[in-house]
Amino acid sequence: MASMRDAMKRLQVIYDACSPEAMEQGAAAKSMDDFTRIRKKLHGDCKTIRSLLKEREMLTARMGTTSETAEASYRIRVAIRSLKEELGRMDDIMAKEDKKKKHKNPEEYAKRKEIAELCHKHVEEVEALEKKKFTDRVGSDRIELMARSGDGARYRGNAAPGGGDPFMESDLAPIDPDVDEDFKKIKGKNQDIDNDLDVIGKGVSKLKDIANEMNTELDKQNEMLDAVDTKVNNALDHVDNVNIKMKVALEKMMRGDKFMINCILLCVLLALIAFVATEFTGGL
């Protein structure tokens, strides 16, 4: 599972580096000064580390302390170390600015000082989250141990109540509000898309109902056509029966006519014979 996740992350890194969006971001990054670039990187890295912390916490809750959670902890420590290195570069930039007696833009300098302090607070908060989870695990083991001896209630009463998502939520202002604003716009667009999909889903549901009604109506019409076909077949059978009866009747009638004709011909023949006989007998 760990190797699969690593492979997926490598593919994601390759995509992030080669995608058109990444190229556009790279072109935009070239036009930034070092302070702004580091600021944006710190913003993204802090969010990434918070996600890693949350993922590790979920793994620990589901599986306990395993090689996967140890690997997750190692990745988090490496990410925090890289985060602090970037913060050190920002401090170097501000140290050079501090040495200047006059600043071209005092307002921009004061704003950068505030941003640098805010970055330090975010990094400290991330480090505190990392240390807090370790302390919480040790404390939970201690509570469980004391509970077995009957003194656990006293320690449970001192446990910090949970509220919200400590990994993804912070009371501090965002390091780069422009990025958060972009995320808000993306979320708004996603919400609009979801609303459109809901409307489309309702339309599809109505079309499905109409199609079902049409199928029901077609079934009824098919039943009616079947009934008509049955009646037509019955009528044809009746016509066939009538034709057969008429044929039989005609044949009988033809037989009677032949008998009458034969009788008439026989009478004519007898009359001719009698006539001939009288002629011959009268002459004698």
From TrEMBL:
Write out the GO cellular component annotations.
endomembrane system; SNARE complex
Keyword Coiled coil assigned to the entry: answer is: yes
Q: Which residues form a coiled coil?
A: 204-231
Q: Name one GO biological process term.
A: vesicle docking
Q: Which GO terms describe its molecular function?
A: SNAP receptor activity; SNARE binding
Protein name (record) = t-SNARE coiled-coil homology domain-containing protein
Q: Which residues cross the membrane?
A: 259-278
**Keyword DNA-binding, does the record have it?**
no
Looking up PROSITE patterns in the UniProt record yields:
T_SNARE
What are the residue boundaries of the T-SNARE coiled-coil homology domain, all occurrences included? Answer: 187-249
Q: Which UniProt keywords apply?
A: Coiled coil, Membrane, Transmembrane, Transmembrane helix
